[in-house]
Protein backbone atom coordinates (compact mmCIF):
# COMPACT_ATOMS: atom_id res chain seq x y z
CA UNK A 1 0.00 0.00 0.00
CA UNK A 2 1.02 3.63 -0.39
CA UNK A 3 2.43 5.06 2.82
CA UNK A 4 0.03 6.71 5.24
CA UNK A 5 0.76 8.59 8.46
CA UNK A 6 -0.93 8.89 11.81
CA UNK A 7 -0.09 11.67 14.28
CA UNK A 8 -0.67 10.94 17.96
CA UNK A 9 0.48 12.59 21.22
CA UNK A 10 3.32 10.80 22.98
CA UNK A 11 4.84 11.26 26.44
CA UNK A 12 8.63 11.49 26.40
CA UNK A 13 11.39 11.38 29.00
CA UNK A 14 14.86 12.49 27.90
CA UNK A 15 17.64 11.00 30.03
CA UNK A 16 21.13 12.41 29.69
CA UNK A 17 24.41 12.81 31.53
CA UNK A 18 27.78 11.18 32.07
CA UNK A 19 26.16 8.31 34.00
CA UNK A 20 22.99 7.97 31.95
CA UNK A 21 24.03 4.61 30.51
CA UNK A 22 24.93 2.82 33.77
CA UNK A 23 21.97 4.39 35.58
CA UNK A 24 19.44 3.19 33.00
CA UNK A 25 21.13 -0.19 32.76
CA UNK A 26 20.52 -0.74 36.46
CA UNK A 27 16.90 0.44 36.39
CA UNK A 28 15.16 -0.91 33.29
CA UNK A 29 14.69 -4.44 31.96
CA UNK A 30 16.41 -3.82 28.62
CA UNK A 31 20.17 -3.98 27.99
CA UNK A 32 21.35 -0.46 27.11
CA UNK A 33 25.12 -1.01 27.31
CA UNK A 34 25.38 -2.35 23.77
CA UNK A 35 22.87 0.02 22.14
CA UNK A 36 24.24 2.06 19.26
CA UNK A 37 23.23 5.66 18.58
CA UNK A 38 19.91 5.63 16.68
CA UNK A 39 18.91 2.16 17.90
CA UNK A 40 15.52 1.61 19.57
CA UNK A 41 14.31 -1.17 21.86
CA UNK A 42 11.22 -1.97 23.91
CA UNK A 43 11.59 -2.08 27.71
CA UNK A 44 9.79 -2.31 31.03
CA UNK A 45 10.39 -0.25 34.15
CA UNK A 46 9.42 -2.39 37.12
CA UNK A 47 8.69 -1.67 40.75
CA UNK A 48 11.13 -3.33 43.20
CA UNK A 49 8.72 -6.25 43.67
CA UNK A 50 8.77 -6.88 39.91
CA UNK A 51 5.40 -5.61 38.72
CA UNK A 52 5.08 -3.23 35.78
CA UNK A 53 5.28 0.52 36.29
CA UNK A 54 5.91 1.42 32.65
CA UNK A 55 6.23 -0.04 29.17
CA UNK A 56 8.10 2.17 26.72
CA UNK A 57 10.48 2.42 23.78
CA UNK A 58 14.03 3.55 24.48
CA UNK A 59 16.16 5.11 21.73
CA UNK A 60 19.81 6.00 22.13
CA UNK A 61 19.92 9.51 20.68
CA UNK A 62 23.54 10.34 21.60
CA UNK A 63 26.58 9.04 23.44
CA UNK A 64 25.16 10.27 26.75
CA UNK A 65 21.49 10.75 25.86
CA UNK A 66 18.45 8.49 25.60
CA UNK A 67 14.85 9.23 24.65
CA UNK A 68 12.13 7.14 26.30
CA UNK A 69 8.65 7.44 24.79
CA UNK A 70 5.43 5.91 26.04
CA UNK A 71 1.67 6.15 25.67
CA UNK A 72 -0.04 9.50 26.21
CA UNK A 73 -0.81 9.95 29.91
CA UNK A 74 1.85 7.54 31.18
CA UNK A 75 4.91 9.79 31.08
CA UNK A 76 4.53 11.27 34.55
CA UNK A 77 4.76 7.87 36.25
CA UNK A 78 7.70 6.87 34.03
CA UNK A 79 9.57 10.07 34.92
CA UNK A 80 8.93 9.97 38.67
CA UNK A 81 9.68 6.27 38.98
CA UNK A 82 12.83 6.46 36.88
CA UNK A 83 14.23 9.39 38.88
CA UNK A 84 13.39 7.85 42.26
CA UNK A 85 16.83 6.36 42.84
CA UNK A 86 18.96 9.07 41.26
CA UNK A 87 20.67 10.16 44.51
CA UNK A 88 24.09 11.52 43.40
CA UNK A 89 24.17 9.91 39.96
CA UNK A 90 25.32 12.23 37.17
CA UNK A 91 22.10 11.98 35.19
CA UNK A 92 19.26 14.37 34.41
CA UNK A 93 15.64 13.76 33.40
CA UNK A 94 13.35 15.95 31.33
CA UNK A 95 9.71 15.07 30.77
CA UNK A 96 7.91 16.41 27.69
CA UNK A 97 4.81 15.87 25.60
CA UNK A 98 5.68 15.40 21.94
CA UNK A 99 3.81 14.41 18.83
CA UNK A 100 4.60 11.16 17.07
CA UNK A 101 4.01 10.63 13.36
CA UNK A 102 3.81 6.93 12.61
CA UNK A 103 4.74 6.21 8.99
CA UNK A 104 2.65 3.24 7.89
CA UNK A 105 4.68 2.10 4.92
CA UNK A 106 7.91 3.29 3.36
CA UNK A 107 8.60 7.00 2.92
CA UNK A 108 11.51 9.41 2.61
CA UNK A 109 11.93 10.73 6.16
CA UNK A 110 14.30 13.43 4.90
CA UNK A 111 11.18 15.22 3.63
CA UNK A 112 9.84 15.60 7.17
CA UNK A 113 10.10 18.84 9.15
CA UNK A 114 10.61 19.68 12.84
CA UNK A 115 11.74 16.18 13.76
CA UNK A 116 13.72 15.65 16.97
CA UNK A 117 14.05 11.89 16.64
CA UNK A 118 13.49 9.13 14.09
CA UNK A 119 12.80 5.80 15.81
CA UNK A 120 12.14 2.33 14.45
CA UNK A 121 8.55 1.28 15.03
CA UNK A 122 8.05 -1.13 17.92
CA UNK A 123 5.74 -3.18 15.68
CA UNK A 124 8.03 -6.15 14.89
CA UNK A 125 8.80 -6.99 11.29
CA UNK A 126 6.98 -4.03 9.74
CA UNK A 127 10.01 -1.85 8.98
CA UNK A 128 7.91 1.21 9.83
CA UNK A 129 9.38 4.38 11.33
CA UNK A 130 8.11 6.95 13.81
CA UNK A 131 8.98 10.65 13.77
CA UNK A 132 8.98 12.40 17.14
CA UNK A 133 9.23 16.05 18.14
CA UNK A 134 7.27 19.02 19.41
CA UNK A 135 5.52 19.49 16.04
CA UNK A 136 6.82 17.11 13.35
CA UNK A 137 5.21 17.15 9.92
CA UNK A 138 5.30 15.04 6.77
CA UNK A 139 3.21 15.59 3.65
CA UNK A 140 1.43 12.24 3.34
CA UNK A 141 -2.24 11.20 3.63
CA UNK A 142 -3.50 10.74 7.19
CA UNK A 143 -4.83 7.40 8.39
CA UNK A 144 -8.09 7.49 10.36
CA UNK A 145 -7.97 6.68 14.07
CA UNK A 146 -10.18 3.62 13.53
CA UNK A 147 -7.96 2.24 10.76
CA UNK A 148 -4.80 2.99 12.74
CA UNK A 149 -6.13 1.03 15.72
CA UNK A 150 -7.00 -1.84 13.39
CA UNK A 151 -3.44 -1.84 12.07
CA UNK A 152 -2.08 -1.89 15.63
CA UNK A 153 -4.27 -4.82 16.59
CA UNK A 154 -3.38 -6.66 13.37
CA UNK A 155 0.37 -5.92 13.09
CA UNK A 156 1.38 -4.22 16.32
CA UNK A 157 1.78 -5.00 20.00
CA UNK A 158 -0.10 -4.60 23.27
CA UNK A 159 0.41 -1.16 24.84
CA UNK A 160 0.25 0.14 28.38
CA UNK A 161 -3.11 1.60 29.30
CA UNK A 162 -4.95 -0.73 26.94
CA UNK A 163 -3.88 -4.39 27.11
CA UNK A 164 -1.03 -3.93 29.61
CA UNK A 165 -1.74 -2.22 32.94
CA UNK A 166 0.39 -0.80 35.73
CA UNK A 167 0.77 -3.60 38.28
CA UNK A 168 0.70 -6.43 35.73
CA UNK A 169 3.35 -9.15 35.82
CA UNK A 170 5.73 -8.73 32.85
CA UNK A 171 5.86 -12.48 32.24
CA UNK A 172 2.15 -12.44 31.36
CA UNK A 173 2.39 -9.80 28.63
CA UNK A 174 3.97 -11.98 25.94
CA UNK A 175 6.63 -9.28 25.52
CA UNK A 176 9.56 -10.76 27.44
CA UNK A 177 11.61 -11.60 24.34
CA UNK A 178 11.28 -8.01 23.11
CA UNK A 179 11.45 -6.00 26.33
CA UNK A 180 13.67 -7.99 28.72
CA UNK A 181 17.34 -8.93 28.54
CA UNK A 182 18.22 -12.12 30.41
CA UNK A 183 21.94 -11.60 29.77
CA UNK A 184 22.43 -8.27 31.57
CA UNK A 185 23.22 -7.79 35.23
CA UNK A 186 20.82 -6.84 38.00
CA UNK A 187 18.03 -4.32 37.52
CA UNK A 188 15.04 -3.24 39.54
CA UNK A 189 12.41 -5.99 39.82
CA UNK A 190 14.57 -8.63 38.14
CA UNK A 191 14.00 -11.30 40.79
CA UNK A 192 10.29 -11.81 40.02
CA UNK A 193 10.89 -11.93 36.26
CA UNK A 194 13.65 -14.52 36.62
CA UNK A 195 11.73 -16.62 39.16
CA UNK A 196 8.57 -16.87 37.08
CA UNK A 197 10.53 -17.41 33.84
CA UNK A 198 12.29 -20.39 35.44
CA UNK A 199 8.83 -21.91 35.93
CA UNK A 200 8.07 -21.65 32.18
CA UNK A 201 6.61 -18.17 32.19
CA UNK A 202 3.42 -16.68 33.54
CA UNK A 203 0.19 -18.55 34.07
CA UNK A 204 -1.61 -16.30 31.59
CA UNK A 205 -0.36 -14.72 28.40
CA UNK A 206 -1.61 -12.10 25.97
CA UNK A 207 -2.32 -13.54 22.52
CA UNK A 208 -3.63 -12.15 19.26
CA UNK A 209 -7.13 -13.38 18.45
CA UNK A 210 -9.20 -13.30 15.27
CA UNK A 211 -12.84 -14.14 14.53
CA UNK A 212 -15.56 -13.60 11.97
CA UNK A 213 -17.93 -12.92 14.87
CA UNK A 214 -18.05 -9.80 17.00
CA UNK A 215 -15.47 -9.58 19.80
CA UNK A 216 -15.74 -6.99 22.56
CA UNK A 217 -13.49 -6.09 25.45
CA UNK A 218 -14.41 -8.23 28.46
CA UNK A 219 -15.91 -11.10 26.45
CA UNK A 220 -15.18 -14.50 28.00
CA UNK A 221 -13.39 -17.11 25.89
CA UNK A 222 -13.96 -20.82 26.51
CA UNK A 223 -12.25 -24.11 25.74
CA UNK A 224 -14.04 -27.44 26.35
CA UNK A 225 -16.73 -25.58 28.26
CA UNK A 226 -14.31 -23.87 30.65
CA UNK A 227 -13.52 -20.15 30.68
CA UNK A 228 -9.82 -19.81 29.82
CA UNK A 229 -9.52 -16.08 29.22
CA UNK A 230 -11.07 -12.83 28.13
CA UNK A 231 -10.85 -10.34 25.28
CA UNK A 232 -8.81 -7.24 26.11
CA UNK A 233 -9.36 -5.24 22.92
CA UNK A 234 -10.81 -5.68 19.45
CA UNK A 235 -11.45 -3.93 16.17
CA UNK A 236 -14.79 -2.20 15.72
CA UNK A 237 -15.65 -4.03 12.49
CA UNK A 238 -15.01 -7.46 11.01
CA UNK A 239 -13.16 -9.57 10.51
CA UNK A 240 -12.52 -8.96 14.19
CA UNK A 241 -8.93 -8.87 15.43
CA UNK A 242 -7.67 -8.06 18.90
CA UNK A 243 -5.77 -9.17 21.96
CA UNK A 244 -6.88 -11.55 24.69
CA UNK A 245 -5.37 -12.89 27.89
CA UNK A 246 -5.57 -16.68 28.03
CA UNK A 247 -4.69 -19.32 30.60
CA UNK A 248 -4.30 -22.13 28.08
CA UNK A 249 -2.01 -22.79 25.12
CA UNK A 250 -4.66 -23.47 22.50
CA UNK A 251 -5.05 -22.50 18.85
CA UNK A 252 -8.85 -22.15 18.82
CA UNK A 253 -11.27 -21.10 21.55
CA UNK A 254 -15.00 -20.44 21.62
CA UNK A 255 -16.21 -16.86 21.54
CA UNK A 256 -19.24 -15.42 23.36
CA UNK A 257 -21.55 -16.70 20.62
CA UNK A 258 -19.97 -20.16 20.65
CA UNK A 259 -18.19 -19.61 17.34
CA UNK A 260 -14.48 -20.22 16.75
CA UNK A 261 -11.88 -17.64 17.71
CA UNK A 262 -8.42 -18.30 16.31
CA UNK A 263 -5.47 -17.75 18.66
CA UNK A 264 -1.90 -16.87 17.65
CA UNK A 265 1.19 -15.35 19.22
CA UNK A 266 1.29 -11.56 19.46
CA UNK A 267 4.36 -11.81 17.22
CA UNK A 268 2.29 -13.21 14.35
CA UNK A 269 0.44 -10.78 12.10
CA UNK A 270 -3.28 -11.47 11.70
CA UNK A 271 -4.39 -12.50 8.20
Describe this structure in words.
The protein has 271 residues and is of the alpha+beta class. The chain has two domains: 4-155, 2-Layer Sandwich (Alpha-Beta Plaits); 204-271, Elongation Factor Tu (Ef-tu), domain 3, CATH 2.40.30.110. Helices cover 14% and strands 35% of the residues. The chain is built from five helices and 13 strands. The strands form two sheets. Strands 2-3-4-1-5-7-6 form a seven-stranded antiparallel beta sheet. Strands 9-10-11-8-13-12 form a six-stranded antiparallel beta sheet. A hairpin with an 8-residue loop joins β6 (117-120) and β7. The chain is globular. The model has no long low-confidence stretch (mean pLDDT 94).
Quick overview of this protein structure:
The chain has about 270 residues and is of the alpha+beta class. It has helices spanning about 20-25, 75-80, 145-155, 175-180, 190-195, and strands at about 5-15, 40-45, 50-60, 65-70, 90-105, 115-120, 130-135, 205-210, 220-225, 225-235, 240-245, 250-255, 260-265.
Query: Structural class of the helix and strand makeup?
Result: alpha+beta
Structurally, the number of domains stands at 2
Low-confidence parts: none
Helix content: 10-25%
Biggest sheet details: 7 strands, antiparallel
**Helix-strand topology string:** EHEEEHEEEHHHEEEEEE
Oligomer: single chain
Quote the beta fraction: 35-45%
Number of helices: 5
Mean pLDDT: 94
CATH architecture of the largest domain: 2-Layer Sandwich
Overall 3D shape:
globular
**What is the CATH C-level name of the largest domain?**
Alpha Beta
Distance between the termini: 16 Å
- Rg over CA atoms, rounded to whole Å, is 19 Å
Amino acid sequence: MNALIKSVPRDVVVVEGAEAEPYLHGQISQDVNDMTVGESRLSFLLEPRGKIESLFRITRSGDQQYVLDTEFGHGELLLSSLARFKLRSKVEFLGSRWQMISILGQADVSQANNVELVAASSWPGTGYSDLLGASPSLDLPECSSEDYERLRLTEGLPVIGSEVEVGDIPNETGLLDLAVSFDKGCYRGQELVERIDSRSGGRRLIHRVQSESVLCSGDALEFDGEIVGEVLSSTSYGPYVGFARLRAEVKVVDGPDGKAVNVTSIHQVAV
